[in-house]
Request: fold
Amino acid sequence: MERDRKQSIQQELKKLYKAPKPDGKRQFMEQYRKRREEQILGPVNDGKTGDARGRAGSFDRKPLSICHMMAIQCTYLTKWVWVVTAAVLGISLYAGARFQAEGWWAACACVPFLGMTAITAAFRSKTWDMAQLEQASRFSLRSIVAARIGILGMGNLLCLLVMCIWMNTAGGRQLLFLLVPYLFTSFGCLVITRRITGREGIYASAGVASAVSCMEMVLHGMFPWIMEKEYTNWWLAVAVGMLVLAIREWNRSITKMEELSWN
Amino acid sequence: MELKVDRLTKQYKNKIAVDRVSMRLTPGIYGLLGANGAGKTTLMRMLCGILTPTGGSITLNGVDVSTEEYRAELGYLPQDFGYYPGFSGWDFLMYLAALKGFDKKSARIRCQELLEMVSLTEMAKKKIKTYSGGMKQRLGIAQALLNRPKLLVLDEPTAGLDPKERIRFRNLTKQLARDSIVLLSTHIVSDVEQTADTILVMKEGQMVFQKTREEISEALEQLYMRVSEEVLE
Reply:
């Protein structure tokens, strides 16, 4: 009741006393905007005590550490990296628990996708045309890519070790069986990301990972004897060879970065 | 404050993209003109440390271009830039602020300020893929100003901006140029005409013209055509 009465009084008063048109509103707004812009664009002090107006919004001009950058890159890794890693780990662990020795091959077939996501995520600046903006920041693009690959590589290695421990079926050789497809895919994806820019590079890398994955399954089905102990040295040789090729390709990609943005 | 460029050269196999360019820039607006392929973008990329020069040097107050100290004072708007899929305008600015050395609290304040300045506050949380060309360009301008740069390099900054935004941008550049060196490259001669204190013209990798506005008596468009032809002859 009381509320209705107040509302009706307010309406009556509005009718009786019309609010005057704002005087100089435009000038005021213009002045405010100018002052605000001056504040936003104004000079900064030494960066130690906030900005020139004693507020936050300034930044530290001291050299930034590699740990600082790794933390930034860790936060901004694409969610697909985590999804694929979780899926590969989940499938491998489940297959290992369910099918024991046979499940091992499911893990080997999944591993190429780990390599693929690591490489495409590390070089995504070029894929999405962010390279120039990142290069003009406090860090070089090389160090940004190196930080990403460091995080992803360590994460992947941890995954491979977890898989090995979980499916302890082939002694120490199991790590080799995982590393060979992983390094082979990484090498292939490095070649592709260096040559093909844009989304096409991601699709081609996914193609490489799928091909390696299929190859693993075919090898297991057609030539199961290659898993015998006497062939361990061959696996080791292939793993070392792949590692050398991947490192060489990595160096090429990093060297090429300086020139990538030139038209 | 002084940006010193000394005999800067960039060579790609048989092509010399930038040929022994030397200049000294102090706070003010410098309009860089030149035809396509004249070497403007290559020069700007070298000034931003994106490309390594084949020869020569770049220093800002004696600090070399390859150092982090130099980059801390740099703002760069490339001609074309992309964004990570899924990034909103806010994510984009926060990411670049982090790379420029801001802590989270400071970055938030600075990003809010800049989004307000480029009139993108309401669109901040929307994905960049939904932005118009002009909005993307304004976002690009905002990221270039994150660290209150002393050297601001703008490659085609007004591309995609509507006339109102273009005027606003000119005013912003004028304000910035009080304390900073602003180098802007554009094909829109009127932009340079109304803002630049000094006009630079590049042709075939060389800096063929460098004069202040006071020293130039004719219309800029005419001057540009004349300078280009003179060099050709």
Summary: Residues 160 and 190 of chain A are 20 Å apart (CA to CA). The interface with chain B takes residues 36-44, 50-51, 55-61, 63-64, 69, 72, 75-76, 78-79, 124, 128-130, 132-139, 144, 258-259, 261-263 of chain A (CB under 8 Å).
